[in-house]
Amino acid sequence: MKEWARRIMDEKVREKYVNEVVEKFGDRIISVERNADNQWIIEINREDLPEVVGYIVNHPEWKETQLSTMAGADERPLRGKFSLIYWISINGASGDVFLGIKTYIPEDDPRFPAVTPVHPGAHWYEREVKDLLGLIPEGHPDPRRLVLPDDWPEGVYPLRKDFHYTDSPKREFTDETKYPYREPPKGTAVFPLGPYHVALDEPGHFRLFVKGEEIVDVDYRLFYQHRGIEKIGENRLTYDQVNFIAERICGICGTAHALAYAQAVEAAGKIEVPERAEYIRTVMAEIERLHSHMLNLGLACHDIGFDKGFMDAFRIREHVMWLAERLTGNRKTYGMVIIGGVRRDFLEYRRTMIEETLRKLREEFQKWVDQTLSTRTFIKRCEGVGVLSYRDAKRWSSVGPWARGSGRNFDARRDHPFAAYKYLDFKVPVHKEGDVLARCLVRAEEIMESIWIIEQALDEMPGGDILAEWKEIPPYREAVGFTEAPRGEDVHYVMTGEGNRLYRWRIRASTYNNFPSLPDAMRGNTVADAVLIIASLDPCYSCTERVQVVDLEEKRARVLTEKELIELSRKVSRRV
Amino acid sequence: MKLRSLYIFHLDTGACNGCEIELFDVLTPYYDAERLGVRLAASPRHAHAMAVTGPLTRQTYYAAKEAIKAMPPKPRIIVAIGTCACSGGIFYNGYPIYRRPESPREGQEYPRRGGIFELVQDLRDEGEYVGPVVYIPGCPPRPEEILYGVALALGLVEKRAKGEHYTEEAGFELPEYPIEERIRLSLRERLKYVVGYFDREGILRDFMELAGKAESVEELHRLIEDYCLRNPDSRISLAMRVLEREFLRLKEKYGWEVGMNAKAPQGEVRGVQVAVKRDAGSR
Amino acid sequence: MAVTLKYPFVKLEAPPEYRGIPHIEPRLCIGCGACVNACPADALLKIDDHSTGTRKIVLDVGRCIRCARCDEACPTGAIRMTRNFEVATLDRSDHVEVVELRLHRCPNCGNYTDYTERALEKAFQILPEGLFDKEELRKKAILCRNCRRKLTVDDTIEASREVVG
Amino acid sequence: MEAERIAFSFISLCLILFLPPLLDGIGRKVKARIQLRQGPSILQTYYDLTTFLSVEPVYPTERLAFRLAPYIAFASAVSAALVLPYGRVIPVSFTGDIFVFLYVLAMVSIAYMVGGFSLNNTYTNTGANREMMMILSIEPILGVAIGTFALNAHTLRIGAIPFALTFTVSVLLAYGLLAYSVYVEGGFIPFDVAEAEQEILEGTFSEYSGYLLGIFKWALMIKRFALLWLLSSFISIPFVRNVANGALILITQLIVLLLLYAGIAVIESMNARLRIDHVIRRNTGVFLCSLAVLLLAALGW
Questions:
Q1: Range A226-242 average pLDDT
Q2: CATH code for the domain in which residue A415 is found
């Protein structure tokens, strides 16, 4: 293990954090339990939630601490209560700790004080738990529906255990049941984006409130792609099968999700993964980062009409896809990670193939970066556009290149070394400008780092098995699994269950933490940049599950009558 | 109608992004669908065809319906890209997935229902014209598969897929291997942990060939060492040695009277084990 | 220079590692249903008809996510991932492969059991020589569940009678 | 003489109608090659047009303006192209056609705006709005450029200008202005803000379909052709007017046109689209320069 990893994985460093929380809140803490190597669950009363979570997240001395995930569970069959667990991670290379703040909520009074006023990062989590489990966050600023389809009836909560997973109750789809979008601010017009828009890869609806072409505010309705994965994973599928749906949460970060899931189950079931499997997982995760970042850079070019950059990025990327296909059998690195290890080994010839591809890639990608950065129109469109301040990035618990482009210095690979990262050396690129260009640069630099990581991993790859045998996983054990997906940290929370099935599975994709901060980055920009800013977030709606623009001056244009037009055309011709 | 120009609008009904990106890939230099006259349309109004991805979630259902209705009345070709659009995929019976009332959520119907078919059927019931549906399964389909499907819609290639219904008449065989079936199955299972499911078949086949040739344990050991020398891949060598050890262990367990015409080993087994251990430790 | 591949105008082979569509080899399939249990997407079905004594193993390539779990689970190597990927069609029934096998009939009561004749033969192939009383096993294994239970009970009664004398 | 006139007019009409899709096809092919891909057949734009023309459109509105806009655009574009010289023949020529040229050119854009504003759709409205801002900022530059030439050549017949041009400082500068305004007015990247596909779904076009869309697209191609034919005539004719006959001049014009198209394709693929505010700022700057050029021309330099 490398020195840097040893430092942050030190027992004393870890315990310091737990001890401080215990000391601060004293007897208000009901119990503290260490459920995995770097994970502690602290049980408290629901009244103390905002205070405890707020204390840890907003702690002035704990750098880059953030809300990683939050899961609600229907534990009525077990103890007659609902449960909520807020997972907070300590980042910034200051200790590998995950703190789970757990509280129970009685069935007859399903309410809890919202954490959102203290930490806006909890915004989506608390709306989601209201949708899916019927737990009411009191004091939440935006209690609208988030996840469920508009034609879903009120009062039916799909993640409750008494709801059968294939049921799909409906209500009439009328104007009243449509999503209640916010009223546009005074003096603005609405510019809708989506749900079907060419530049948005996936459906989502954005309402941009615009003045002329300037965006004043944004409202959105996402979760068009909510597919009920968690419920299927808890009911229809077995532990091993869940891996395959986990991959399909997202087509680009498949390995990251499968890995996060596998690691969560491994932590809960105390399954030791062979070292070779950890190295192979690392290489696969990095190959995924290569193709994902290149895709994002390519799409950013496409969105501003720079087709040469788009085509070139995809041409270079294709070699990575072919490599992935030969390593895993599928272009999307699907079907590789499984609980206990990996499914295919790297034979010698595959190693050689990776090395050759990387050599070519490094050279060609450097050329691409030089070419793109020397295109003036590209820089003009990216510089100073879509600025997200450090404060906002922290406030919304943003992750990945989106946050690192705003100066947040954290990366799950370094701060919570998983798989084989603890044996490797690498840098975490951080830029402080917070604009689209900064995020592009972070991604470009990460590609170079990824190539270096893969090369190290191939050099140091040990022998041995690639899969651990495991027989049974004890029921009702909780753990989180975390990975650094190309878009940022992915966290999966699992609670094991009986009959070779999960009791509760909570997926938290990186975009889930990034998206709520999008309006902050979009305000003050123009409509033309909206798509580019969304692309620079590298959203993966399917992971998390569009924007209507709203205007003052433009309103005039909208109601322009034919008469006015003729007059206008006369004016034009007179000028000529 | 043979089309020489096909504007495709992309409709995502809740896909994982895998198929979308492959659809984008089809436009890029290596595949370049534009040479077939295919272009991505900016609006459903321009589209002759609709490329659908995703299992059709209820939230996208209404928007997707509007999008198809916004297309010009003809030809309205639907290209279902990916397993999800073809049949709902792995998500087929989740609670937010749209299915027609008559499509069972837990049934055993085949061809499996789900995906864009549900919407197309709804539209046809409403009296809207919807053209042919080209199904391109795959999770995600390779760009070549999408090209093939599009070429099929354009009438440039022949259909190759064909449904099959086999009965007992197809014949039955229980293949005989040089080693006993239960040992073979155990070895096969063990190999999954060493080199994974994909490479194991080839390695096991080679091992069985050697085991069939060997007259004695010593000879088997020699044959395997020979094989490893000839084959420079350290992973395959490791797997062969693991197989040899496992094979001898199982033979010991089940008895030696059948299979290899060899006597019980005298101490070579340990020797082999040591060798294997050393190998496993090194790179 | 242009790098564009000539496909679909020329034939193109997928790489050997590629996981294409699965295919069931009917001569090897024993109808055990291991693949059906392993399949996460329910692309494989096991449909028993006890009135006609047939079992259908149905594979719908249009539902298959190509994870190769079936390939991994199949004891006889009947279901295999192929490198074929040209399966686009206008008719979904082109994606369905059905293997229809006969169910074993209990010689005692004449009812159909829930395993196929082929699975039984395979089971006998796997049985280790000498460890078990094969003949005894053969006698029991070919019976249906009810008859087997009855036989076991009968045997026990008989044995206890012998003991009690 | 009359026979030659009729022959040339006929050829020019064929060129105006059927050459633009080929030029577009060539542009696409060049772009594809720069992107290292095979690209479509150079006849692809014809296939696209014929397919569009054979498809029944959907009418999102009952308004007549919506239905008429493509035809107005088409007619205007063709008329703009007809006042230009083809060899030594100008199909339609009269004094003051210089204003007609600019007017009908603007009519194409106005038809685009009418189409866009006839609907209550944010994308078409934004597209129309952007087109309006574009046309208001670029037409003056084009006007000044052509005006400078006219001042130099002492004629108000646009087709006759290149035959009477003498080279002065202001004329050389006006060439630059003309090239710039033709490029911007043609809506080539980075100035395709009004039809931006990714941002506003091709603006006004987003609601057009079938043959209406076909005609509209065709009209825009003819407009581009007219603009570039103007530039190509101004570049080629002054050099060959004294040494070549009509046919040869026509061929020179064609060759220059092809080169321009290929050159534009190269510039297009090397750039990202600008934002409308960038474009307006740049156009305003160029317009101020153009006034200086006009001043030079007025002083006789």
A1: 87
A2: 1.10.645.10
A102 neighbors A84 (Cβ within 8 angstroms): yes
CA dihedral of C68, C72, C76, C77, whole degrees rounded to 10: 40
Count how many pairs of residues, chain A against chain B, have C-beta atoms within 8 Å: 201
pLDDT of residue A541: 54
User: Where in the sequence is the domain holding B116, given as residue range(s)?
Assistant: 6-154
Question: Confidence class of residue A283 from pLDDT cuts 50, 70 and 90?
Answer: very high
Contact A487, A538 (CB under 8 A): yes
pTM (2 d.p.): 0.87
Average pLDDT of span A160-170:
86
The CB-side HSE value for A255 (13 A sphere, CA atoms) comes to 29
User: How open is the CA angle A544-A545-A547, to the nearest 5 degrees?
Assistant: 95
**Encoded tokens for A354:** 């990776």
Chain B residue closest in CA terms to A334:
B139
238-267 of B, contacting C, C-beta below 8 A:
254-255, 257-258
Tell me which residue range forms the domain holding D160: 2-298
- Residue A456 maps to a domain: yes
pLDDT at A274: 92
For chain C, state the CA radius of gyration: 22
Separation CA D291–CA C102 (nearest Å): 93
Within this chain, do residues B239 and B111 fall inside the same structural domain, yes or no?
Answer: no
Q: With an 8 Å Cβ cutoff, is D39 touching chain C? A: yes
Q: Say yes or no: B147 and B257 in one domain.
A: no
pLDDT score of D80 more than 50: yes
C16 within a domain of the structure (yes/no): no
Q: Which residue of B has its CA nearest to A349?
A: B233
Distance CA(C91)–CA(C78), nearest Å, equals 25
**Which has more confidence, C129 or A498?**
A498
- Containing domain of residue A489, as a range? 229-496
> Does residue C115 form part of some domain?
yes
Is the domain of A144 the same as that of A281? Answer: no
Residue A134 belongs to a domain: yes
- Same domain for B87 and B139? yes
Encode pLDDT of A392-414 as tens digits: 888 888 888 888 888 888 888 88
CA distances from C38 to A48, A239, B137, B192, C20 (A): 45, 11, 20, 16, 18
pLDDT of the residue at A561: 41
Looking at the structure of chain C, the number of domains it has is 1
Contact D48 B3 (CB under 8 A): no
Residues 6+ apart with CB under 8 A from A226: A147, A148, A149, A545, B14, B57, B59, B96
Show which of A437, A467, A496 is a domain's final residue.
Answer: A496
pLDDT at B262: 41
**Does the beta carbon of C2 lie under 8 angstroms from any beta carbon of chain D?**
yes
Name the region of A397 (left: φ>0; alpha: ψ -120 to 50; beta: rest): left
A99: helix, coil or strand? strand
Give dist(CA B84, CA C65) in Å, integer: 9
Mean pLDDT of A503-529: 83
Nearest CA in chain C to B171: C27
**A166 and C CB contact within 8 Å:** no
Tell me the CATH number at B16.
Answer: 3.40.50.12280
Query: Per residue, what are the HEC states of A170-237?
Result: CCCCCCCCCCCCCCCCCCCEEEEECCCCCCCCCCCEEEEEEECCEEEEEEEECCCCCCCHHHHHHHCC
Answer yes or no: do D201 and B4 touch at CB < 8 A.
Answer: no
Backbone angles phi, psi at A490, to 5 degrees: -105, 130
Look over chain A and give the mean of its residue pLDDT values, rounded to a whole number: 83
Residues of A in contact with C38 (CB under 8 A): 241
Asked if the interface predicted TM-score (ipTM) of this complex is over 0.90, the answer is no
* Chain C residues touching D33 at Cβ < 8 A: 2
> Can you list the residues of chain B whose pLDDT is less than 50?
258-283
Q: pLDDT at position A262, please?
A: 92
Contacts of A240 in chain C (CB under 8 A): 69
